[in-house]
Amino acid sequence: MPVLQRDGVRLFYEVHGAVDGPAPVLLTHGYSASSQMWQPNLPTLARTRMLITWDIRGHGRSDSPEDPELYSEELSVGDMSAVLDAAGVERAVVGGLSLGGYLSLAFHLRHPARVAALMLFDTGPGYRRDEAREEWNRRVERTAAAFEAQGLSALPNRAEVAASRHRSSAGLARAARGIMAQHGADVIESLPAIAVPTLVVVGAEDTPFLAAAGYMAAKIRGAKKVVIPGAGHAANVDQPEMFNRAVLDFLEAT
User: Fold this and answer.
1) CATH of span 3-253
2) pLDDT tens digits, 60-90
3) Which of 17, 31, 107, 202 is most exposed, with the fewest beta carbons within 10 Å of its own?
4) Distance from C-alpha of 240 to C-alpha of 225, rounded to nearest angstrom
5) What is the distance between the alpha carbons of residues 1 and 131, in angstroms, rounded to a whole number?
6) Rounded to an integer, what distance in angstroms lies between the CA atom of residue 27 and that of residue 252?
7) Cα dihedral 133/138/142/143 (nearest 10)
8) What are the sequence ranges of the domains in the chain?
9) Rounded-to-integer distance, Cα 160 and Cα 238, Å
10) In terms of Cα–Cα distance, which of 207, 58, 187 is closest to 128?
11) In 16-92, which ranges are continuous DSSP H helix?
12) Predicted TM-score (pTM) of this structure
């Protein structure tokens, strides 16, 4: 099992597909899912280029440290950089779903030279207004409390979560409070400065994220937006063939 050690925390990652070829792709999963959520897409997307998948700390086969201070957006962005280093990749197409998409934007903000392009799936850029951010963080706290009270039975009944196996419900609770909670508007305010090719994908039935997808596509210069019919929050699992086609078309044009 390929793992890297980062300050005592083991992070699971996998490298798929061709070693030589166009820019590699780093894919980051959503909250309470894991790298397993990309299984419907790997055989197609890894035909011509390297794909790197990994498990966010507190998720899947990565460690779930007991210290809450070991979970944060900043540490997760650092984990992404460390995964690229472990795979021998300096610059990649960086993409993800939901929390993974937000972390991809945060990664671009902090490491723009390492990003060849962005792919944002069923995600949002955070909140500019304090009130909206505070409401989001109250929801995050309810999610964390549910995992503490109910264990892994609190996992949502969603397609991208079903394929994942987690070691610790406590790790998921700590990841919610530390990684998913938001504390500023720097990511959403960075959108107009993004100059790399960007793909925004959203499921037509992913109602909570339709407006966010439209907002990102409007704010990021030249962004391409694709709405996948018959798909919910996990467009890559709900409609893998259409999702794969949208991603391949984008990558081939990038």
Assistant:
1) 3.40.50.1820
2) 999 999 999 999 999 999 999 999 999 999 9
3) 17
4) 17
5) 43
6) 17
7) 10
8) 3-253
9) 9
10) 187
11) 42-45, 73-86
12) 0.96
